[in-house]
TrEMBL record:
It comes from the Bacteria. This is Uncharacterized protein.
Length: 45
């Protein structure tokens, strides 16, 4: 395996406002987002 394996996000957030949406795609933050969605009843997309 030559070279280093870099972990690059598929879609980086273009604006700071899109940061929560980008984090929601993450497994870790996605679970928290889903729990918030279930508890609040609000759609977090």
């Amino acid at each position: 395996m030559a070279g280093k394996t870099l972990v690059i996000p598929q879609k980086p957030p273009p604006f700071p406002d899109k940061l929560p949406n980008f984090l929601a795609n993450s497994p870790e933050f996605g679970n928290k987002r889903r729990q918030l969605f279930l508890s609040t009843g609000k759609e977090t997309k």
